[in-house]
Amino acid sequence: MNARVSRRHFLRTGAVGAALVLGFRLYAARPASAETSTAGLAQFTPNAFIRIDSEGGIVLVVDKCEVGQGVYTSLPMLLAEELDADLDQVAIVPSPPNEQLYADPILHLQATGNSTSVRSSWTELRRAGAAARQMLIAAAAAEWRVDPSQCRTERATVIHDGTRRQLGYGALAAAATQQPVPQDPQLKQAEQFKQIGKSPLRVDLPGKVDGAAQYGFDVRLPGMLFATIASSPTFGGKLNSLDDNPARSIKGVRNVVRIGGQGFDVGGYKLHLDDAVAVVAENTWAAQQGLAALEPAWDRGPNAHLGMDDVVRALEAASDRGGLVARHNGDVDKALSTAATRLEARNYMPFLAHAAMEPLSCVADAREDSCEIWTATQVQARAQGIAAQVAGLPPEKVTLHNLISGGAFGRRLELDGIALAVAISKQSGAPVKLVFTREQDIRHDLYRPFYHDRLRAGLDASGKLVAWHHRIVGPSIFARWAPQALRSDGLDPDAVDGAIQMPYAFPNLLVEYVREEPPAIPTAFWRGVGSTHNAWVIESFVDEIAAVAKQDPVQFRRDLLGHAPRALAVLNLAAEKSRWDKALPPRSGRGIALAYAFDTYLATVVEVTLSGAGLVTLQRVVCAVDCGSIVHPDSAIAQIEGGTLFGLSAALWNEVTVRNGRVEQGNFNDYRTIRIDETPEVEVHLVSSREAPGGLGETGTVAAAPALANAIFSATGYRVRQLPIIKSIEELKRRA
Amino acid sequence: MARLQINGATHEVDVPEDMPLLWVLRDVIGLTGTKFGCGIAQCGACTAHVDGKAVRSCVTRVGTVADRGITTIEGIGATPHGRALQNAWLSLQVPQCGYCQPGQIMSAAALLSEVGSPSDAQIDAAMAGNLCRCCTYVRIRKAIKQAAASQATAQRT
Ligand code: FES
Ligand code: FES
């Protein structure tokens, strides 16, 4: 930690009434580049607050979005642990939009993503709790004229056992504001934790079992209208003409608006919206009926003949170009030329939609001099920024109510729903709830990129890996989403994430990146981001190399992990718990994959059986996880369970394909998602650790596809090089 | 004008006969616990009960359910099965984003009213129409069993 910063961690931002308000700086350990970009800030500007009022109410401002990962529980737990309050005594308030104050140190933006929430807050939230507690104790000790070290705290109360006195934090709040703010409070040792490492009921769950939880989709305002939308069916198409009478003649329809056909730039983030038509009505059904009655005349535009061949051909051609060097150790060419055995592979990974259970939705009330939005967004400041642009107002006139999200998986890192809702509200002169149909949600998503990878490896005569060459070919999401994150030569750190920091020790290694944008198809982050793509490619190829070297896949990996004890430990744990060496019936197989992603180590074993028709049944999944210190173990397990199944589902069935410029899939009937009757038992084993926490929200997804593909190889001898696996059904049928 | 009996209360609504029950519940009456996920009976997010049977309210015309007993997630906690399921859902911390869970619980409640102690196969059959993109299925299965067991115990005592 940066000592200069750590001396100025906390600031008593004043007594507001009789409340103790303690401001502190989350993300003190900011990287140098971020320091300079915020140089305009006062030397110490708190970006997080605890407020303890005279009634004893404790409020924490949380800057992360609750998308199902549990941050509304895990973040207050960090504070409550050191404050010695119970979780039910801490209320949370979502933070306002403010890019400079809330920029995540890993993402450099106010954003929820990349599995950073706990990693970014682990130390600072605990320090804030400890500082406030110390001030409250000092206040009580002064009043009682006792030694502060004779006081203890529990359940938001300071207690002096010697004189049997106690005072609640509320009663002490006013006096505590007069105490000096400790800049280096003592934190508990892990064995003193009373809350961290336990799994209390998540605070958001009661409302999620009785229908009370409110998502963006559920917001209701007085006078609110309901809108639904259809964008140009082809990418880049234009609306030539529209007769809106058929919609207006439907009972309940109030307005038909043309929107889109516009590009945005919000602090470097770029978004293009195709032309679209929206129908605004008294209820969603009338809006949908109105939309169905319309026959917009679309000009199909420049991509009218775009198909998957165009995408794949362009990537393959680009793969013959040299790339930007992401990492280079040793001399790969030389090692390859002298290798006893050489292998090559080409892999393909499809476009994917997010298809969160809650389709995109946003409520907007755009007026002359103000704009309010109710939605779930993973990027609050940008949400405010785009709403301001559409509304034609300065950002401070836009109020954001950030709600919980019905899943996100990266979808709510994008701002199309907000821009569209504000535009519709503005044109309709009323608050409007825009809800996407599932078809609009899938056909007008921004997609996980299609990637093409080329790999080469060399083995020496003893079967030892001596050369590794990985060339990644695909688009750059960061170039559109946050160009400031690109390396100066244009290298996209997400595209190579997971490929340059493998746990394995390879003596000669070259990782390259060739940027190739697909024509017209917008790309975006998806659960597990770069690591999900690269882990699939790498772990499939490592498995392939092991097979060529005639070595057991677990043993082969073990031999490459001499300097990675945590990776080795999860590998061994997964092998042990899955009974790796136990024989399986015919047409069955076990596959393993190892990943290091978001500072977490994970090994996953998938067991499958194939039917005579080549259909894959998932039999069992075992995950071994070392994510360092764990705040809420039950949520950790849940994230790995869900993330793994999410990845298996996509690997088995999902692809978004484009034909004649349009997305072919539209709903869950053709964008298949795993169901309960296809779900195997999933065992998650957590390694106990005191290391700093690793991320969990996306990690399970990362290892899923390669473990599955490797299990299929073990069952059939067929090496899957193209996802989804259902595309290989004929081959699997032949081998099964 | 249709008269609807929802969670024991009567609602008079002036809507077209062919309007799906889902949008009547959500947009007209304001019961937003019942969710939209697909609109074509593929995901189960919109599951409600009509006379105790699970229906996909996105494809149930409101005209067909007038004067029948409709129960939604907001009312299911008043039934013994519903309460037991909600308790089990909380004790196993089933929901993640939670958006599919009203539908899951409604399908599970319909199952428990037919089969007191369902097998894995019966759970799979009854719940296969309910998607969960967060993939909470492992816990859903456990929670249904736990709820069934708790009711069996309650009946014995
Ligand atoms: S919304 Fe009715 S089944 Fe999906
Ligand atoms: S809990 Fe998120 S969709 Fe089921």
Walk me through this protein's architecture:
The complex is a heterodimer of chains A (736) and B (157). With 736 residues, chain A is α+β, with helices and mostly antiparallel strands. Chain A folds into 3 domains: 4-202, Aldehyde oxidase/xanthine dehydrogenase, molybdopterin binding domain (Aldehyde Oxidoreductase, domain 4), CATH 3.30.365.10; 216-302 and 360-435, Aldehyde Oxidoreductase, domain 4, CATH 3.30.365.10; 308-352 and 447-735, Aldehyde Oxidoreductase, domain 4, CATH 3.30.365.10. Mean pLDDT of chain A is 91; it is low at 1-8 and 28-44. Chain B is α+β, with helices and mostly antiparallel strands. Chain B has helices at residues 21-29, 73-76, 80-91, 101-114, 120-127, 137-156; strands spanning 2-6, 9-13, 47-50, 53-56, 69-71. The mean pLDDT of chain B is 96. Chains A and B meet through helix 7, helix 9 and helix 19 of A and helix 1, helix 2, helix 3, helix 4 and helix 5 of B. Bound molecules: FE2/S2 (inorganic) cluster (FES) (2 copies). One FE2/S2 (inorganic) cluster sits between chains B (95-101, 132-134, 136) and A (68, 357, 407).
DSSP summary: helix tally of chain B? 6
**Average pLDDT number of chain A:** 91
Oligomer: heterodimer
Global morphology of chain B? globular
- Which regions of chain B are unreliable across 5 or more consecutive residues at pLDDT < 50? none
Average residue-wise pLDDT of chain B: 96
Q: Spans of chain A of 5+ residues with little confidence (pLDDT < 50)?
A: 1-8, 28-44
Given the C-alpha coordinates, what overall shape of chain A results? globular
Largest sheet of chain B: 5 strands, mixed
Counting structural domains of chain A, the number is: 3
